[in-house]
Amino acid sequence: MKRREFVILLGGAAGAWPIAARAQQPVMPVIGFLNSGSAAGREQHLAAFRQGLEETGHAEGRNVAVEYRWAEGRYERLPELAAELVRRRVAVIAATGGSVAPLAAKDATTTIPIVCVFDGDPVAFGLVASINRPGGNVTGISLVASIIEAKQLELLHELVPKARVIAILVNASNSNAKIIAGDLQAAARTLGLEPHVLDASRESDFDAVSAMLERLRPDALVVATDPFFLDHRDRLVALTARHAIPAVFGRREFAVIGG
Predict the structure, then answer these.
(1) Which DSSP helix (H) or strand (E) runs through 53?
(2) Is 12 part of a structural domain of the chain?
(3) Are residues 138 and 156 in the same domain?
């Protein structure tokens, strides 16, 4: 082989080496993160999520990537957001933010593993076959929020024993809302209270809720645990203060800002 031909051949091979090396490198796994709320105000939750990854030897951007999908309180967007993650071929979906995100993820895939935090009875909603043997592709933690809501009402009754008319605020677009409202109504009647269920599923609904509180003049208010309400906690706390209504909330974040 002539010297010129050898140099050209060597140069071509050297140029191909980086491409070959990149091709041999393992593809970084991708986690799909699906949440029904918004990123704003959830810095603490995201920090805990990333800390959990690090404790298992994973670091975002170093050996794992994360695709975030936020519904911004518009629960009707969740099916398409979950479908995007499936098309992205993520290795696992972390579905958080109430019951709606895990249900949307389950509807989108039967093969990609789903790790979720569920605020209702996962068996009743068909998320898993049973608590002991969930089966399928879904696992995680259930908070059984409906039981917690009833206990919150009992606590509110102890703190405001003279209260008789109770307003219950739920988000009707949440798949768990009917169960929570029903449980709270039953618990209220057991305590001899008169329950009234109010709904807010969009930011514009808060004006109607305020007007209803003005007409109803309840003695106390129970705000159901819901990601949408968490996103708008400033407005809800201000609402209860404006109407001077004793209220109980399901999350610490409400109390931190004066709820």
Answers:
(1) helix 43-55
(2) no
(3) no
17-50 pLDDT, tens digit per residue, is 444 444 555 689 999 999 999 998 788 889 999 9
Helix residue ranges, H only, 88-232:
100-108, 145-159, 177-190, 205-216, 227-231
Do residues 160 and 134 both lie within one domain?
Answer: no
Q: What domain range is 185 assigned to?
A: 145-256
The helix/strand/coil state of 94 is: strand
Both tokens assigned to 120? 């209702």
Q: Length of the chain, please?
A: 259
Same domain, 149 and 125: no
The pTM assigned to this predicted structure is 0.72
Same domain assignment for residues 119 and 58: yes
How is 183-206 classified by DSSP, letter by letter? HHHHHHHHTT-EEEEEE--STTHH
Q: pLDDT tens-digit profile of 177-216? A: 888 899 899 999 999 999 999 999 999 999 999 999 999 9
